[in-house]
Amino acid sequence: KKKTKQKRKKTKGFTAKQRRELRLFEIEPEQQRYAIFLPLHELWKQYIRDLCHGLKPDAQPHMIQGKLLKADLHGAIVTVTKSKCPSYVGITGIILQEFKHVFKIITKEDKLKVVPKLNNVFSLELDGFISYIYGSKFLLRASERSAKKFKLKGTIDL
Fold this sequence. Notes:
With 158 residues, the chain is of the alpha+beta class. The chain has one domain: CATH 2.30.30.210. It is 22% helix and 24% strand. A six-stranded antiparallel beta sheet has the order 4-3-2-1-5-6. It is globular, with a radius of gyration of 19 Å. One of its GO terms (biological process) is tRNA 5'-leader removal.
């Protein structure tokens, strides 16, 4: 007699509708404080230093830029430098969540701002190295962006 193996059932995750109903990705108002996320920023800085091998002054900027484009931005302090909508210009804060089309940013005033990537230019500053991110070329999820090859092009106007 042959022994039949029992197949293990894969545990299925939640559907998108269930995730929305459970509010899994929403940050509660009492947790929306800038000071809570400063340790996340310190971890992000350490992650970028390890990724870019210490951000030495003799490092080539385009190599660092390429690594920053593929890096995870959760915990980075970003500033909106240019935008088609003037009300977004000057927003500075820590990126809490990154979606395909928007960043959720917590400001120093403990306000959660949702900033679209399209038609915005963001700047990252780390150890004196300032990098600009064109949001319209950045319309990907963080996981998809790490596998994508970016082509170097000149500056792009909004």
